[in-house]
Amino acid sequence: MGNGKTGEKGISTFHLTMLGLGTIVGGSFFLGSGVAIQAAGPSILLSFILGGLLVYIILYALSEMTVADPVPGSFRTYAERSLGRSVGFITGWVYWVGLILAMSSESIAASTFLREWFPSFSEVAMGMLIIVGITLLNLLGADYLSKLESGLAAVKLLAIVGFIVIGLALIAGWIPGTPAAGGGELQNEAWFPGGIAGIAGSMLIVMFSYSGFEVIGLAASEVENPKKTIPRAINMTLISLLALYIAAIAVILMLYPTQGMIADQSPLVLALTRWGMGWAGTLINIVMITAILSTMLASTFGLARMLRSLAAEGHAPAWLKDRHDIPYRGILFSGAAMLLGLAMGYLLPQQVYLFLVSCGGYSLLFSYFIILASHYRWRRVTPCSPEAACQLPGYPYTSWVGLIGMIAIIVSMPFISGQGTGLVVGLGLTALLAGIYWVKERRGRVSAPSSQRPIPAPLTEAAEEITGIRDDRETADEVPDSTTVPKNKKE
Description:
Elements: H1 13-24, H2 27-30, H3 33-40, H4 44-68, H5 75-83, H6 85-114, H7 123-138, H8 142-172, H9 195-210, H10 215-218, H11 226-255, H12 267-274, H13 278-312, H14 328-347, H15 350-381, H16 397-411, H17 419-447, H18 457-467
Helix pairs in contact: 1-8, 1-11, 1-13, 3-9, 4-9, 4-11, 4-15, 4-16, 5-6, 5-15, 6-7, 6-13, 6-14, 6-15, 6-17, 7-13, 7-14, 8-11, 8-13, 12-13, 13-14, 15-16, 15-17
């Protein structure tokens, strides 16, 4: 498997793009977008455009740092270098815990749908089989996984394209025996039924529909040529997502009333079924299961590499360190954690579990905010150069737009029922991790001999300013040689 060096085999631009799309296009769009449409009405189109703009800013901020220094751990490592070890610790664990909860809920959703075809299987057994299968497939490594994700992502993308084509045929009246829908329901809808609050309330789910793009950064140390592959993969991913999402949502708006959306049913299926295309709706349901499994597969890829990065920096138990190209221990530990999340989903009262799962949305928004903050700090001390290609236009103003956008979405979470509790749980998780880090560091300082105690941060920063040398505390000997990349000399 490749290590990211030019001329050696690794993840190609196409495979990285499909890995990104495989993570992004999942149940959040096929199933969850109905809630966002109901909240915002036709103005959901504006929400998806705004979401795409924010993703553009975040992705290119991440890309600049990744191209300059494609290190394992991606945005967690950049946060640690730019904002301090405590932020790196909190960011890594908030992301990992939130995504574990989200993927556990995805396994429950997939098992619920699969039981329609396999009623003899219990949902618990089905969910366990799904998680075990996803975990075992990840053990095959990034090269095999990226090719598998390419196939699964292709199925999802073709399904969305097929929905758009069938929808346009219904709108134009090209289906025999079916009257033309024309402007349909869109002609009778108020464009901003919920006002600004409706748009704001829909943004968390919209960002969920885009979530997963950070896997491009987490895979950066395993691509064949980061400087060319990463920007190309970002461009291809963004263009594909914006075109498909906006076209699909526009078709849905013409075929189905926004206030008739049902939370636990796909808006694509509802639209097709309403116009006598039940058979197509069944196919979409099958694709939706594929989408969920594909998302879990790619997310586990990112979770394992996040754990390896945390362990390499001393932020996770030493037994999670892995010297192999494939982070076997991180994969197995993440799989075990998803099984625990699955058990929580069936043992705890449903409402409590939903509260826990909703913090997954907060964890993603928190991670995106940290990416932007890390990049802003990084660009202030890293001038544009061939090594640090400056790709984000309008810096620092675009960075401010992104940071304010993330804060606004987090603050607006209570506008939709259930999201407010997710915000409280997410903030509680962040505070808990901050407390754990404080206790951990305090014990470390007390137990360490005075000659080995860390230099206080202000003195360290002053020394860096004087000498121009930075100590990143990188334990490169704990990271596989194939993923170790020289640091940017300008840092």
